[in-house]
Amino acid sequence: MATIKEMSVEDKLRALYDLQLIDSRIDEIRNVRGELPLEVEDLEDEVTGLSARLEKLKNDLESIENQIKAKKIAIDDHNTSIKKYSEQQKNVRNNREFNSLTKEVEFQELEIQLAEKQIKEMKASMEHKKQVISDSKERLDQKNNHLKHKKSELSDIMGETEKEEKFLSEKSAEYELVIEERLLAAYKRIRSSVRNGLAVVSIERGASSGSFFTIPPQTQVEIASRKKVITDEHSGRILVDNALATEEKEKMEKLFSKF
Hints:
Blueprint: H1 9-33, H2 36-89, H3 95-178, H4 181-193, E1 200-204, E2 207-208, H5 217-225, E3 230-231, E4 238-240, H6 242-256
Parallel strand pairs: 1-4
Antiparallel strand pairs: 1-2, 3-4
């Protein structure tokens, strides 16, 4: 390929159109993958979030179990105190001491009632969390299976296209090196501003490819002469004549057919 200084306008147009064909082929490969990489990433985030939530629920469950154990120990302690105060009541010397011990017994009984009520509430909470854990595990399994399937799907596509994409990306970089900076910047600017990524298009039936706006005959003659770079006044795309486009497509098809 000619260097930048040696390139004629026709060489520049051919290089630009070749670059467009290569980049469009890379776009096709990436479109085959579509949203799969993002789907995999989103699923991975969901799995991470669900796993963290499941771990927290298990920790919460363990904490409640420990609290229940502590309450049961406290109940045993209260019962021991009741037994002690009841024994002391047998040896009191007056009503004041008896009433004081009676109040202590009543207090311990109230503490037992409160602890039993809290245990009941905590057990209900445990049952609820166990159900949530079960549901979360089921959902996590589903997400993991879905993720495994999507990763396998992505891996298959990557296996089929990765080598070709790498080769074409290197070719794209090679072509960029021989295109003058001003033209390359224009190409990239146009390419990024249009949905289909077509910055260089051919003339088809008197209009630029994909457009319904007719190009004046005189302009078509100038494009076919390949003496200067001409852009479509409606879309801003760089225009090449159909004959040049056909020649370059045939050349690039041979390159693409290697894969």
